[in-house]
Amino acid sequence: MTEPTDFGVRIAGVGSALPSRVLTNADLEKMVDTSDEWILKRTGIRERRVVDPDHESEFTLARDALKNALDDASLKVGDLDLLIHASTTSEMTCPPNACRILAALGETETGAFDMIAACCGLVYAMNIADSLIRSGRFRTIGVIGCDELSRITDYEDRSLSILFGDAGAAMVLARDDDPSVGCMYQTVSSDGGRWETLYLPVQERDVPEWDRDNPIRLGCLRMSGQEVFKFAVSKFRETINDALEATGLTVDQVSQFVCHQSNLRIIDAAKQKLGLPKEKVHVNIDRIGNTSAASVGVVFDELWKAGKVKRGDHVVFVAFGGGLTWASSVWKI
Ligand code: UT7
Known about the structure:
333 residues; alpha/beta; 2 domains; Peroxisomal Thiolase, Chain A, domain 1
């Protein structure tokens, strides 16, 4: 549980950015041995968005998402004390994209760093930002979750290429006079013993023994889909249960469960097991696929823009992904 402070943390602004190209199941049928019917039945996805590399990238999506969140908060980039950018697909590891994003928006002397927690990136970043603001050292922090998974997807691998899309999402978190608002409870967890179930080999030596005889494209994700699936189904349930138990909130008292859009079957399994009503679990995977670090942020942005999250509401964010990692964040908005 979050230690009490005499001020709180509010979500001052939310934004997202989607790339221009639409990649439908029909398009994928022309690229790999798959079908619209199989993809829809096994994942719930109809289409996803991917960047046009001529004018879009992880960087432009992250920059635009942050700009939209700042506009939503009626703040300028110079109002930020810190920017945390979570991504598995930054163009370069040096400089951190966070620094370039600030510079592109007109600010060059603010704290900025990149972090990687795969699909949990934004939830990890929100938890870190809330804790830093509550420490009293920072007042206003930008957090971004953004991924361009199309750049690290092998479009000849039908077990994986059908899942992923590109997107960026951002929030501006700010110190608030009301001590009751902000993150009430958070978890940041991982099990590195299971890293081989979802990994990105860069060099030959990164490929584990069991995967050596398979056709590997260096620089592209590898996933043991079923293992990740089983992990996700049980972790989703455990993580949401844990969040409810720790905070004493009931399902009725939570206005939205903002879930990582990994696979519709994974979300449906959690909904069924926990008895979560349909209207409290927003789904957009059918339109944009699994967008990794951006996923929960785009869901939240859609809810925010639709007026489905109001001040005083309780919201549970939950994600899992490569690492393996999993995380939760329970907020009073
Ligand atoms: O976001 C981070 C983490 N990632 C995830 O959460 C992903 C978790 N995993 C999944 O979502 C699912 O495991 C997948 C969507 C990746 C795969 O679905 P599945 O129901 O687990 O399929 P499967 O791997 O068990 O394969 C079942 C069959 C196999 O054929 P046989 O051996 O039964 O003849 C596959 O070869 O489906 C075949 N298959 C496909 N067929 C048509 C696998 N991919 C495809 C495809 N189109 N795209």
